[in-house]
Amino acid sequence: MKGESILGEEALSLNDAKEFLAEVHSNLQAFLEDRNIFEDYERYPSEDVVYIMFRGFFNSKECLKLLTIVQIFELTDIAEYQSLNWWFLSGLVFGADVDLVKEIIDTKIAEEEKSKISPLITSGEGKYIIKRI
Fold first, then answer.
1. Among 24, 13, 9, 10, CA closest to 73
2. For the chain, how many structural domains are there in total?
3. pLDDT value at position 106?
4. What is the pTM of this model?
5. Which backbone phi and psi does 12 adopt, to 5 degrees?
6. Biggest alpha carbon distance in the chain?
7. Which residue has the higher pLDDT, 96 or 44?
8. Mean pLDDT across 26-47
9. Do 19 and 78 form a contact (C-beta atoms < 8 A)?
10. 96-103 long-range contacts, Cβ below 8 Å, gap at least 24?
11. What is the per-residue DSSP string for the chain?
């Protein structure tokens, strides 16, 4: 089964989705363990963790890839029942405010674009000078 990506790239296979989610799962486990909340993670609102992970751990492309996965695949196909992935993904699908998620991604895209431009521009005596590439 292949799904069309909202990234405008080639289709995303189920195996690609599973591999990406395994990475997301590891990052999420590390995040929760660092905060000593791994064992009781289910008592925390998963949508709050979704927002934190989107803001602090994923770049815009990863955010969009994750959204693509949850839009084109059934959750039961990509995550084991009652796994941390399921908890996180169900929070994204059912609990997270889509407008807030879009706002986070838009902010990330703007920040990433700005960081690409910033090294090319320097400030000098009130004027901006574009560095030679």
1. 13
2. 1
3. 93
4. 0.71
5. -105, 125
6. 60
7. 96
8. 78
9. no
10. 96/47, 96/50, 96/51, 97/47, 100/51, 101/50, 101/51, 101/54, 101/63, 101/67
11. -EE--TTSSSPEEHHHHHHHHHHHHHHHHHHHHHTT-STTGGGS-HHHHHHHHHHHT--HHHHHHHHHHHHHS-HHHHS-TTSHHHHHHHIIIIIS-HHHHHHHHHHHHHHHHHHHHGGGEEEETTEEEEPP-
Angle between helices 98-117 and 60-72 (to 10 degrees): 150
Q: What are residue 9's phi and psi, to 5 degrees? A: -105, -175
pLDDT one-digit tens code per residue, 55-83: 888 899 999 998 888 888 887 787 776 67
Contact (Cβ atoms closer than 8 angstroms) between residue 12 and residue 3: yes
The whole domain housing 126 covers 2-130
* Tens-place pLDDT, residues 79-104: 776 677 788 888 888 888 989 999 99
What are 8's two structure tokens?
A: 């405008």
d(CA 94, CA 86): 11
